[in-house]
Inverse folding.
């Protein structure tokens, strides 16, 4: 009798999460919860200025404070060749500043003391003499002919350009534009924001002189990469480094890079031979660690009168801050921005990108997205809406005309990716039906009588999730595969370890479900561990929605290897040949005699007690999975908004989300990911941004200025699903963690623009602050550019 | 002195004021000798080793450190520990009994009201303060009561459902 | 973040507290602490001494006295006002503002009087006090004095309180007729500082405005007392042109700075819109009663 898969917590079960048992009791184990014997505490002194030469540093007053053990300076780091470190994008980044500070918040000194209060007292006592230099706070200033050189530390760097990059068919695109009936143009800025997990970054470095082993507890989404990086930077052999990433209080891309604080705490521990804990404060996190976005677009669509898009031209400028420290596959300078328009059938496209240095914090991390696809899809969906409006076409119909059709797969995207599956029009239709598209004009007219403006915004997109395949994706040469190791114990219980690292995604729950699906072992009999590089197999970590597409696939594959061995054991136990064995969930049986069978648990016991001659005992294995392609989930997000024209305040009325992420392992968790993503989308459209004043002061350096929405403002979400299995993933799953963050913002912005299009407004750049909306309504014109910070 | 050995700091100067506090935390009486500048959150976490109370920001915004002080929710990073002297503190560790979860804890698990778990303790204590006062809140009342606690993962919808679930259970309806 | 060292005293009487303030250098009073402690954590404030008044009994009250005045003690928390059974009846403006102060958790700890003493131009209560013509009762070594709130705040984050004086009570004068009014605040999310906010108090009798006050939040270097705008309303029946004039005068009384919450012009516009709206809401409510 076959096992009921849902009952054992297999595929499709909305299994309640295993990790919750500790979190709801306050028994999570985050970095700051870890206490080691003899542990000291580190606090960092950060630059108050955006651009300045360091003339002198006086640490004597700090040293005079009882309880201060050491004050670290750039000079001390330089003496050990650690003042600078490589970034994930083949640039260098200062660990502690030696020559200049290049952004507000840059690390200048670190104080190690008996407790963090005293460490902070020490930081306050340090006197740094700065010679201020002219700060550069946007690309326009950076590219001005007489602009001061930010990276004068780099030989051969003569200006503030980081790189120039292009992709697509320039000539072909020019041709198409020359022949088009109409060209729709749009300029956009995707403002800088910050992933801002509630838990900031931190580390506890513990160097043991006796064993020469370095153990570091660290807030890392990718502990194995960190191990390799630390080995290279600190010249400690890789086997003598153990990175433990315990429970993470959110990540969203922020905890991928290696930050100066980690490196300083490591050197401090080596020098003091004591464990050193560094827990970053919120301001430090917001002003110095990996940000997201900050990209400018000049976009053009070549259109035929009947609504067909013939070509795309995107010219982009990205602001990388003082160091090019983007976390992304190395061969792509601006991530996967060229995944734009992947869901549309467009023959020709061309994109340029210029990256610039500014006196702003470095980073450019994949903030809840697959390496800049958030920018790609936002630009795409804003351009699509503007083009529909320019043509005077219905926005849904315009999308329908241009979306890739179901039987066109596999399909080359305009910039050359290969999409493989989807039901785009169906998703759109489900969304339109759910929101009541046909009735919306009536509601709009009704609202107008109350003096309110209503708008409906659509965003449809497919995005490339799950980097990577090793042909195309690597970080610093390390291929982007992932791994799983499964040990089935003799009693049929099991431990699974992967190279991914959950930050709230629920891997401990879902990975066990995949094993349950593949082997029929109840999910509750499988414990999942991640994040300890001494025990977990090598993996590239969790970001870019890659866990299910890559590590999750590895979990399937390792389970299948276990099943293959168990099959041989079953044949031995049942005294038939391998070929006569059939599998049903949880059990092998003899073909033609379904009553004669053995369970997977019986096979496990036999693996330790009764293996056939010539077979290795035990039942464990590992798998390294290199996906043949990215996964391509599709989403249709629709938002309706109501605007108060007298204040510019807009309220969300409804949000409908239709997600096709293929097969859902745990629908409850998938829906949780979608709602979390929609909230960040709403936040970015509405309030969440980081900007800088003309002196380079970061505006948005704490939660008083960097606004995250609360339960009160956050709208309710209505979720719908369409399922198109991924053709190459072992269980047909696609990435989902980031779809809503990627596709969502355009739905909200398009909704506000839909409400304002009749008065001639085509664009307001995010965030759609009430004053910008009000200004657009008053003037009947666009409000563009990075958000203002000075009196206008 | 409670142990056989206690390391004394030779360098601590006389002028540093310390004071004794007696706090009832999760029903247990505790005493500590502290500097007045010690924040309640840090006494709870580092002194009493109850690490379920998290600190997420410096500016009294995020609410991850929310505890109940004499039954009322406070951000424990914005109360000095010395101010809790003689008072009663409830942290997330005090919600469950040895054998039973609090319905709010059950609700958070059952409705998937958490992901990374970092905001969860504070969120649950705000929810408890609400339900202690209002056993039958509307969705809007729940959203309002939780608006001093930030969550980056869930989008709040399931948190709200979790609190309503717990309210129903506490009323004997679930 | 970690505050710097200070000495701490927790007196149990006002007199003791005043004596401590008189004898200690660089001492600050700690009431709810919801503004002071964050500033100390960020080390924007580093007082050498803190005098915690939370252990002084009988300061948590708010009450309507028989003479029609309304009194709020130094330890009355925002949440006490938000949940008050009597506030709405006597002080509709305060009842409208109470749920909009900070966030629900901060409201359980922070105090009304402390908020007024903090003298933050972004403070909600100070605008309400201005609109209501309220006063602060300060107690020092030589006794009590009553300071009208318009004279109490001497600049951003500064008041006329002497170093050894404690604000023990806020007093709101009796209504001339029926007191009505409202508070509107533009904030991007709960707990945000106001982009701009307006407090309007109207004392009405037979449809005629007997007294009026308008206080404005977040649109100047300190709380704005839009007295000309309020005077324009007095004696009127809130005719449209009068309201429009008052709204314009209120906007004219502001001197906002453009920032990431909005431009200066926008903030001025919000003030006039909100003043009009509050009065329109009042009229709508009156009509419903009538």
């Amino acid at each position: 009798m076959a096992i009921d898969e849902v009952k054992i917590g297999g595929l499709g079960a909305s299994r309640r999460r295993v990790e919750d048992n500790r979190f709801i009791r306050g028994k999570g184990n985050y970095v700051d919860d870890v206490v080691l014997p003899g542990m000291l505490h580190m606090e960092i002194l950060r630059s108050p200025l955006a651009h300045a030469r360091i003339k002198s540093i006086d640490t004597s007053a700090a040293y005079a404070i009882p309880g201060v053990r050491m004050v670290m300076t750039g000079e001390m780091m330089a003496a050990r060749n650690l003042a600078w470190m490589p970034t994930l994008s083949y640039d260098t980044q200062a660990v502690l500043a030696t020559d200049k500070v290049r952004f507000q918040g840059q690390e200048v000194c670190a104080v190690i003391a008996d407790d963090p209060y005293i460490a902070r007292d020490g930081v306050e006592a340090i006197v740094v003499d700065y010679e201020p230099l002219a700060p550069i706070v946007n690309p326009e200033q950076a590219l001005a002919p007489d602009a001061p050189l930010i990276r004068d530390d780099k030989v051969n760097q003569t200006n503030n350009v980081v790189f120039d990059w292009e992709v697509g068919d320039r000539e072909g695109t020019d041709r198409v534009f020359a022949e088009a009936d109409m060209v729709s143009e749009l300029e956009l800025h995707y403002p800088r924001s910050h992933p801002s997990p509630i838990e900031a970054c931190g580390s506890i470095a513990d160097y043991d002189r006796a064993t020469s082993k370095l153990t570091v507890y660290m807030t890392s989404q990718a502990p194995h990469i960190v191990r390799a990086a630390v080995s290279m930077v600190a010249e400690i052999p890789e086997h003598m480094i153990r990175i433990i990433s315990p429970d993470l209080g959110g990540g969203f891309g922020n905890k991928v890079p290696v930050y100066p604080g980690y490196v300083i705490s490591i050197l401090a521990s080596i020098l003091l031979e004591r464990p050193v804990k560094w827990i970053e404060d919120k301001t430090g996190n917001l002003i110095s660690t990996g940000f997201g976005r900050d990209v400018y677009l000049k976009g053009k669509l070549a259109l035929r009168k009947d609504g067909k898009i013939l070509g795309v031209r995107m010219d982009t400028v990205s602001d990388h801050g003082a160091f090019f420290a983007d976390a992304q596959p190395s061969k792509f300078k601006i991530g996967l921005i060229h995944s734009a328009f992947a869901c549309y059938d467009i023959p020709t496209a061309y994109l340029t990108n210029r990256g610039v240095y500014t006196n702003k914090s470095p980073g450019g991390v994949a903030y809840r997205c697959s390496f800049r696809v958030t920018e790609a899809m936002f630009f795409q969906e804003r351009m699509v809406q503007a083009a529909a409006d320019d043509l005077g076409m219905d926005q849904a119909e315009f999308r329908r005309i241009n979306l890739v059709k179901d039987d066109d797969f596999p399909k080359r995207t305009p910039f050359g990716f290969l999409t493989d599956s989807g039901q785009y029009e169906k998703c759109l239709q489900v969304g339109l039906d759910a929101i009541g598209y046909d009735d919306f004009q009536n509601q709009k007219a009704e609202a107008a009588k109350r003096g309110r403006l209503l708008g409906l915004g659509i965003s449809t997109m497919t995005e490339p999730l799950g980097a990577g395949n090793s042909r195309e994706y690597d970080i610093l040469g390390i291929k982007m595969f992932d791994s799983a190791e499964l040990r089935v114990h003799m009693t049929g219980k099991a431990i699974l370890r992967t190279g991914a690292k959950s930050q709230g995604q629920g891997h401990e729950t879902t990975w066990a479900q995949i094993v349950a699906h593949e082997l029929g072992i109840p999910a509750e009999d499988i414990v999942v561990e991640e994040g300890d590089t001494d025990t977990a197999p090598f993996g590239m970590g969790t970001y870019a929605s890659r866990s299910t597409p890559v590590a999750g696939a590895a979990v399937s594959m390792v389970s299948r290897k276990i099943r293959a061995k168990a099959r041989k054991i079953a044949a031995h136990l049942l005294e038939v040949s391998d070929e006569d064995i059939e599998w049903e969930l949880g059990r092998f049986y003899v073909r033609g005699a379904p009553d004669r069978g053995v369970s997977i648990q019986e096979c496990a016991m036999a693996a330790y007690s009764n293996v056939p001659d010539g077979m290795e005992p035990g039942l464990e294995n590992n798998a390294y999975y290199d996906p043949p392609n990215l996964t391509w989930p599709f989403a249709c997000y629709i938002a309706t908004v109501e605007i108060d024209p007298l204040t510019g305040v807009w309220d969300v009325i409804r949000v409908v989300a239709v997600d096709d992420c293929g097969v859902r392992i745990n629908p409850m968790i998938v829906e949780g990911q979608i709602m979390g993503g929609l909230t960040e989308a709403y936040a970015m459209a509405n309030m969440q941004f980081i900007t800088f004043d003309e002196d380079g002061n970061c505006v948005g350096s704490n939660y008083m200025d960097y606004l995250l929405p609360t339960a009160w403002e956050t709208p309710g979400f209505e979720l719908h699903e369409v399922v198109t299995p991924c053709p190459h993933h072992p269980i047909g799953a696609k990435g989902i963690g980031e779809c809503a963050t990627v596709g969502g913002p355009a739905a909200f912005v398009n909704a506000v623009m839909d409400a304002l299009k009749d008065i001639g407004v085509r664009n307001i750049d995010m965030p759609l602050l009430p004053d910008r909306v009000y200004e657009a309504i008053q003037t009947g014109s666009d409000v563009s550019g990075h958000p203002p910070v000075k009196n206008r | 002195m409670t142990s056989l050995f206690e390391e004394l700091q030779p360098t601590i100067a006389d002028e540093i004021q310390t004071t004794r506090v007696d706090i009832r935390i999760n029903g247990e009486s505790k005493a500590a000798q502290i500097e007045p500048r010690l924040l309640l959150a840090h006494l709870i976490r580092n002194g009493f080793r109850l690490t379920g109370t998290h600190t997420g920001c410096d500016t009294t915004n995020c609410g991850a450190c929310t505890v109940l002080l004499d039954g009322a929710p406070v951000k424990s990073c914005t109360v000095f520990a010395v101010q809790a002297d003689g008072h009663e503190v409830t942290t997330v560790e005090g919600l469950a009994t040895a054998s039973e979860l609090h319905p709010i804890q059950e609700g958070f698990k059952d409705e998937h009201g958490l992901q990374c778990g970092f905001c969860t303790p504070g969120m649950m204590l705000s929810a408890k303060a609400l339900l202690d006062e209002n056993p039958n809140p509307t969705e809007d009342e729940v959203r309002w009561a939780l608006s001093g606690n930030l969550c980056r993962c869930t989008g709040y919808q399931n948190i709200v459902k979790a609190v309503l679930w717990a309210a129903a259970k506490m009323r004997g309806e679930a | 973040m970690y505050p710097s060292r200070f000495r701490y005293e927790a007196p149990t009487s006002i007199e003791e507290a005043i004596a401590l303030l008189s004898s200690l250098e660089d001492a600050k009073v700690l009431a709810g602490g919801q503004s002071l402690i964050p500033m100390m954590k960020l080390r924007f404030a580093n007082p050498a001494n803190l005098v915690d008044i939370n252990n002084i009994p009988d300061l948590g009250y708010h009450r309507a006295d028989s003479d029609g005045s309304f009194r709020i003690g130094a330890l009355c928390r925002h949440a006490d006002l938000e949940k008050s059974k009597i506030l709405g009846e006597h002080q509709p403006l305060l009842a409208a503002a109470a749920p909009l102060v900070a966030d629900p958790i901060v409201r359980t700890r922070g105090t009304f009087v402390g908020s007024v003493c903090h003298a933050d131009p972004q403070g909600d209560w100070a605008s309400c006090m201005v609109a209501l013509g309220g006063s602060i009762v300060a107690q020092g070594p030589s006794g009590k004095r009553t300071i009208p709130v318009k004279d109490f705040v001497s600049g951003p984050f500064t008041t006329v309180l002497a170093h050894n004086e404690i604000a023990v009570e806020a007093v709101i004068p009796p209504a001339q007729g029926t007191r009505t009014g409202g508070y509107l605040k533009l904030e991007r999310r709960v707990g945000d500082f106001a982009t701009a906010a307006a407090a309007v108090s109207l004392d009405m009798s037979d449809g005629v405005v007997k007294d009026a006050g308008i206080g404005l939040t977040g649109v100047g270097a300190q709380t704005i007392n839009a007295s000309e705008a309020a005077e324009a309303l007095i004696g009127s029946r809130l005719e449209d042109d009068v309201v429009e004039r008052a709204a314009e005068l209120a906007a004219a009384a502001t001197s906002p700075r453009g920032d990431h919450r909005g431009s200066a012009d926008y903030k001025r516009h919000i003030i006039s819109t909100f003043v009009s709206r509050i009065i329109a809401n009042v009229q709508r409510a009156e009509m419903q009663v009538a």
Remarks:
- Residues 120-133 of chain B form the longest helix (14 residues).
